[in-house]
Each structure stands twice: as structure tokens, then as C-alpha cells.
Amino acid sequence: MGKGRLEAFSDGVLAIIITIMVLELKVPHGEQIEALAPLVPVFFSYVLSFVYVGIYWNNHHHMLHTAHSVTGPILWANLHLLFWLSLFPFVTGWMGENHFAAMPSAVYGVVLFMAAVAYWILEQTIIAAQGSASLLREALGSDWKGKASPVAYAIGVLLAFWSPSLAQAMYVLVALIWLIPDRRIEKALAGN
Length: 192
Description:
By secondary structure, this protein is an all-alpha fold. It is about 75% helix and about 0% strand. It has nine helices and no strands.
């Protein structure tokens, strides 16, 4: 099976996720700048989640460029990833509405952790489908960011119960690490 339908479906789901998240930003009642103050936590949680969805979309796009075809296991692994990403609007809204309280911050971290695991499963499924000459395996190399991210999320979940602000800092740190352009797949594709 070609990968075009998988890419189009995934792009559509991610676009819907972003749309649902932005709908959580309710228009304030009042015309003064102070009316925006209650929206600050909701806005910051939206920005963080928007960045994460953007990171996943970007990396998913590059990863699928290495696949020549799509198998049934790849479709299921992709759906598994989309499931966890589809929870972003819920946990984003819950965390923002509750001003980054401990439990919403921890659950947000659990969803980040599970999305990272699901992404890794999708990577491994594509690698398995490509066989021993996997372009994706070659491109990923040691994949230190992919290995460090779930560990950082798990630490963030634990930190949320002690200091939610430290948990948020951990989630922001991981996002910043991934914002640095990752050219591994582009380089591997250019070499072929």
C-alpha cells in the first residue's frame, strides 16, 4: 500500500487536534487587558501543546519519507500514536484550566510519555518493514533525543507531585530540545 493515504489521514487528525485545542481559548468578557489574565495558564498550556503537535507533525512527516510502502502493522502503530496525540486537547485544557496543578500536570506528562512510546513503536515498525537495509534505522543512529525524552517525561510526572512548576520546566526543556532542527533523516534521504 502506498503511504499517501496514511500521510493525509495523519495530517488531518493533527489539524483537528490543533483546532480543538485552540477552541479551549475562550473569549474573555470585558474589553480591558485585565480580562485576559485568567486565560494566561490556558494560553501557555496551549502554546506548549501546539509546539508538541508541531514537533510530532514535522518528525512524522520526515519519518514517513523513509517508508516506501505501508503495512498493516504500520497503520496500527500510526493509529496508536494518533490516539495518544488526540488526548492532547483534553490534558492541555485540564492543565491550563487548573493553573498547572499537580494531577493535571502529571497526567499531561503521562500523555507525553505515551505519545513518545507510541512514536518509538511506529519507528520500530517502519524499520522492521524495511528490513536490514532500513534507511530509517541508518538515519536515526543512536537517537539520543528519542531515548532521553520518555525518561524526561517520566521524571516530569514524578516531579509534578512535588513541584508542578519543575514538571512544566521538564516538559518545556524536552520541547526545546526537539525544536532544534534534526537533519538526520534529511541527510539520509539526500544520500540515497
